[in-house]
Every structure is written in C-alpha cells, then in structure tokens.
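User: Hi! I'm working on a homework problem where we have to compare a predicted structure to a textbook description. Could you give me the structure for the chain below?
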Amino acid sequence: MSHQRFDIVVIGSGPGGEGAAMQASKLGKSVAVVERDPPIGGGCTHKGTIPSKALRNAIFQATTVFNNKLFRDAGISTIPDFPDLRRTASSVIEKQVDMRTSFYERNDVEVIRGHASFSDANTLTVTDELGGKRTVSAANFVIASGSRPYRPHDIDFNHGRVFDSDTILGLTHSPKSITIYGAGVIGCEYATMFRNIGCKVNLVNTRDQLLEFLDDEICDALSYHLRDRGVLIRNREDYERVEAVDDGVILHLKSGKQIKTDILFWAAGRTGNSDNMGLEQLGIEVNRRGQIGINEHFQTNVPSIYAVGDVIGPPSLASAAYVQGRYAAHHMILGTCETALIQEIPTGIYTSPEISSLGKTERELTELGVPYEVGHSMFKSLARAQITGQTVGMLKILFHRETLELLGIHCFGSNASEIIHIGQAIMSQPGEHNTLMYFVNSTFNYPTMAEAYRVAALNGLNRLF
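Assistant: Happy to help. Predicted structure tokens:
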C-alpha cells in the first residue's frame, strides 16, 4: 500500500473543497484533494447547481421564444422536450470541469481519486473504484464531502416514476403532471421550471408557508406568483405513503388527501455525505441527517479536522461553502481569520422570477425591537423592466429610521441574485458609510434595474417624519 504525506488534505472537490484547497495552497502549504467521483466539481457541478441552473436558463429561453408572437407566427408552436432542454447543460458542465481542473494543476494541488476513510486523526485510507488502497496522512483535514437527497426507506426510488433532485435530471420525457413533495429551495425552483414547460404542478409543503426563512412579503409574493401561474400549493401537509403504479404515482397524505400525477419528485431534505468515513471511531459528532457538528471556526470536536459546505447543513449554498472552505483553511494555518468572510451571506434562489436576500427580515427586526422603515421599488414601474418585459417583482430595503443604516435587502424578480450585490457593497461598509443616502446621492445609468435602489431609497425616506 502506497503512502503520501501532505500538510493539508481536503475531502471533496465541490465549492467547499475547492475553496479550502486553493486558500491552503496560496498560503504555501502542500495540499491534496480526495475525490471519489471520476470528474471533479462535486454535486454542485454535476448534479445540483450547474445542471439545474443551466436547465432553468434553457427553459427560460425556450418559453421566451414560445411566448413571443413574432416566433409563434413563424411556426414555432412547441417547447422542446425535457431531455432536449436538459442536454444544453452538458457543455456547461464540461467547461466547468476543465476550468476547475486547471485550478488544481496551476496551484500544485494533487487530486487523488477514491473514497476517503479515516484510519486515525492524521491518516486516511483512500480506496479507488477498482479496490486499490493507499494511505494519505496530514496535519489537518477539511471534510467537504457535500450532501445527497434524503430518501425515506418506505419509498421506492427505483421505480421509474419516482425521482429526487439527482435523478430528475435523467428524466426521459416531459410529464403532463408532477407532484413535488417538499417546498424548500429545490422544490420551489423545480416547481417553476416544470410549470414553465406546461406541466401541471402540485407543490406539497410541510410548513405553514413557502420558504418561511425569507421576509414575509417575499414569501407572499412567491406564493401569489406561483398560484397565478397555475401551481397548486398545499401547505401544512405530510405524506403517509407513496403508491407507485403503472400509469402514475399516488401520494397519500395524512390529511386523507390523495394526489395522482405522472411522476413524483421527492424534494424533502438532504443527507450529509459523512457515512463510511470512519468519523465515529474518532468521536466526531454526526446527527441523524449525516451532518457534522462544528464550532464557529468550522472545527469538529477533533481540532485538526474541519468540515464545511453541505455536510454541515444550512445554509447549503455553493457560495457559502466556498467561503467556508477559505475560512477553514485560513484558520487552521494562521489560527485566525476575518469573520466578515462568513457573515451576511446572500441567499440566491433560482425560481422564476429569482429571489435574493441579505440581512434581517421585517419579522426579525420587529422581534428585536429595532426601529426600522421600509423602502420599496416595484419593477413594473422601472423603464428597463418594461423594455425587457420582466415586470414581475420588487426591491425592498429595510433601514434604521434614525441612522439610515441598511439592515436588510430583499429582492424578488428577474436578476435578483445580481441586483442584491449592489446593496451588499453598501451594507458591508463600516459605520456611517453604511447608509441609505448612498442610493439617493448616486447617479444610476438609465434605464437599468440598478436604479431600483434609488427609487426604493426615496420611497423609504418619504415614510419618515
């Protein structure tokens, strides 16, 4: 059995692993990354963020053409089938893999293929797909092994009509109807995608409202828009059993309801990829969903082993995983790291339209007793939105009514995940430089979506007295 030694070994080549590996290399350490799948990039590149967002963009382009009278008159009368829309993601994935492979090569980070399991706190056994083994030792480790869809044992995911977020990408036809169980980020994103290609959608939510971690007004806007598009939302429901039959899937709910559709998409939670890694023998805490326990510096209860990304649970964002990896590497090497790196991470949700938020919600500010005010800009009133036809949505700014400090930014509409970063740049400024007046006293190009900040700021100031 061959043996190698490095300063730091990272398990997983997704965003968290890449962030940790690149940061450690830049700080002069010898680094290796262990990846069990043949191509690098992790679930983000191959099963999650990249393919699903590429699919969303393909659907958006297809429906934009389909709904344009000019193209309808030219004879374009159908939207491509799901597999054709999905195929457009392949080239994007290839480009991502090539680019990320070059990152490791340029930074002298060795990529070791195989499944990693701890032999002790400083040694891994890596088993490749042919059963070959090698040992790898290091002073520090970063676990960035990601997550997978949660699969209840009483549901047959081998049935041809039952899918999760990994297998849905292999769907071979466009279904006429779909039940999505779980109305979290993934469930809501796919609900809008399937509805946009003409599929009848039942969205079953186990909670009181959609995406309740968001600002209430944004939750309401999403619910209204989905219902307006024809999505049937069923809140406060739990499944009793799933009955897969030859011509569809019947979802039996505890309330007594039964929903039959062509396919079922299970989107209720995820499980951390922490099994079969030898963590138990090291005393590393793992909960029932496979998520690894950490402290505020991403250290497990074995100080030399850190964990980042989806394997530690929420917020389960690619952007968050990357900065967590950078933070962990910086902390383990230098003993400290600037905490601003991992604070106030914006949320990006790729429904149609998009949702993005940063900072406090109205609910949180009210509970904290903070005197705040609200500034709104409705997209339907912006010239750029009228020109592009993307008039659904709004920008909402929450600010301290006395100091004018920005406290929260919430956006619902086209390009929300881009628009949010203008506010982020101001909100991250220290002291009095974080102020609503920046948007009032700055000139924005016209017509742009960015001028929503000026409109919202003036709207908020008008509420003061």
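For your comparison, note the following. The longest helix spans residues 49-66. The radius of gyration is 24 Å. Good luck with the assignment!
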